[in-house]
Design goal:
- 68% of the residues lie in helices and 0% in strands.
- The chain is an all-alpha fold.
- Helix 12 runs antiparallel to helix 13, helix 17 packs antiparallel against helix 18 and helix 17 packs across helix 19.
- The longest helix has 22 residues.
């Protein structure tokens, strides 16, 4: 219920304004109404506030050093850069190299994948490197990927490190994976950068960090922490983490024993195209007597390369009528995996 804190005009008042005679002076400067006085006070306070902000260097956006601004914006996408460039002219000027880097990045991707232009890996790498030179971490990561594919791993790691230091989660993840695959292995450094990417929300890094914790690789074995990161990656849409999360719930390892949660995550992984999950979920449906659903998931698992599904699938098919078998195969043929990260 609304409570009025002040009487409405409609309620009237027991008080009436006293009538004063109007002098010539009053005619020259008529008295302002209450609302007009409030508006004038508001304009004055706003003006004085804006003057005080402009006079205070700490509140002036334009006073932010260019190098600091460029480090903050290094991992920005083009829409984010455009928005930041509208803050003030100083920012617009400072962010021009990064906006140019976005154009170079786009051309690099077009040359790399042959989108609208003839595929040219040399031009793609050149565009990425020019974008990286202008401070874009996105271009650094793409240039690093190309160097890695060319087996120039030192150059790739150098670019990944630049992006990682500037706070780019993809750069941190790639740097961590590079250390895991390097010779000699540097697992501790890998875990350090995987953790940085994980807390920034990079789901593939969360999954790899969970694997390191699960195996005691570069860090002490910790099943509870591993399961926690599996679950976070699964919630972020990473299909392999969904499968591992299901196993953790199924056996009560690192997560509370819960067959309902185990089934939920196994089905989700299966629906996202994980072959082993399709096999496990199909077998679960078979034990529950859901033959039609079971044969669909087992056939999907077979097509995904899980040969262990063949025997149970054939047993079920022998029990079904020809019409049911045809219907099941039609469902499989029209099946599409749910969107996920692989």
């Amino acid at each position: 219920m609304k409570q009025r804190t002040w009487p409405d005009r409609s309620t009237g008042s027991r008080f009436t304004a006293l009538q004063f005679p109007i002098t010539e002076k009053d005619n020259r400067r008529p008295e302002l109404t209450a609302s007009a006085r409030k508006a004038r006070i508001k304009r004055r306070s706003r003006f004085s506030c804006s003057r005080s902000i402009k006079s205070t260097e700490g509140h002036d956006f334009a006073s932010l050093p260019f190098d600091v601004l460029n480090k903050i914006a290094a991992s920005f996408t083009l829409p984010q850069l455009r928005a930041a460039s509208l803050v003030c002219k100083s920012w617009n000027d400072a962010l021009r190299p990064l906006r140019e880097a976005m154009v170079l990045l786009r051309w690099g991707k077009r040359f790399k994948h042959g989108r609208g232009v003839r595929k040219n890996l040399d031009k793609a790498l050149d565009s990425f490197l020019k974008g990286a030179a202008r401070g874009s971490t996105l271009a650094m990561v793409d240039a690093g990927l190309m160097y890695w594919e060319m087996d120039k791993k030192e150059a790739a790691i150098s670019l990944y490190r630049q992006a990682a230091v500037l706070g780019d989660p993809a750069g941190q993840f790639n740097l961590g994976i590079s250390y895991l695959q390097a010779q000699p292995l540097n697992a501790e450094e890998a875990v350090k950068w995987l953790y940085q990417a994980s807390i920034a929300g990079h789901v593939r890094a969360q999954y790899q960090l969970a694997l390191c914790l699960h195996r005691g690789r570069g860090v002490d074995f910790n099943l509870q922490e591993a399961a926690r990161w599996y679950l976070r990656a699964a919630e972020g849409g990473y299909v392999r983490a969904m499968y591992n999360t299901s196993l953790c719930y199924s056996f009560g390892e690192g997560l509370p024993l819960s067959h309902r949660q185990a089934r939920k995550w196994m089905k989700r992984a299966a629906d996202c195209g994980h072959g082993k999950a399709q096999l496990e979920h199909g077998l679960g449906l078979f034990t529950e007597g859901e033959m039609m659903k079971a044969v669909v998931y087992l056939e999907l698992a077979t097509r995904a390369g899980e040969t262990a599904a063949d025997h149970v699938k054939n047993v079920i098919l022998q029990q079904l009528s020809a019409t049911s078998r045809d219907r099941a195969m039609l469902v499989v043929d029209s099946w599409r995996a749910m969107p996920s990260l692989h």
